[in-house]
Specification:
With 91 residues, the protein is mostly helical. The chain contains 4 helices and no strands. Helix 2 packs antiparallel against helix 3, helix 2 packs parallel to helix 4 and helix 3 packs antiparallel against helix 4.
Length: 91
Amino acid sequence: MGQCSRRTPVRPAAHSLLGGFRTELDTSSLLWSLLFGSIGLGFFVYGRRQKKVVPLVSGLALMIFPYFVSNTIVLVTLGIVLIAIPYFVRI
């Protein structure tokens, strides 16, 4: 009798926090991100100590890009390419 018949829609927490974007975090993408981030940290430290730009930038990219890629296949492909760049580009 005293209840209001109007309901407010309930949104998932990811929707409200990220402005409409839904994120899926599965185990494989989490583990690949951890692997590429660890390799990126190694490249970054090596590039900083040896004063080499290519491993430094590649390491930074390896540590940052998993935050923006949600597809596991794209994550692995891009990670392998970023790992191979210092091997082929020697500046």
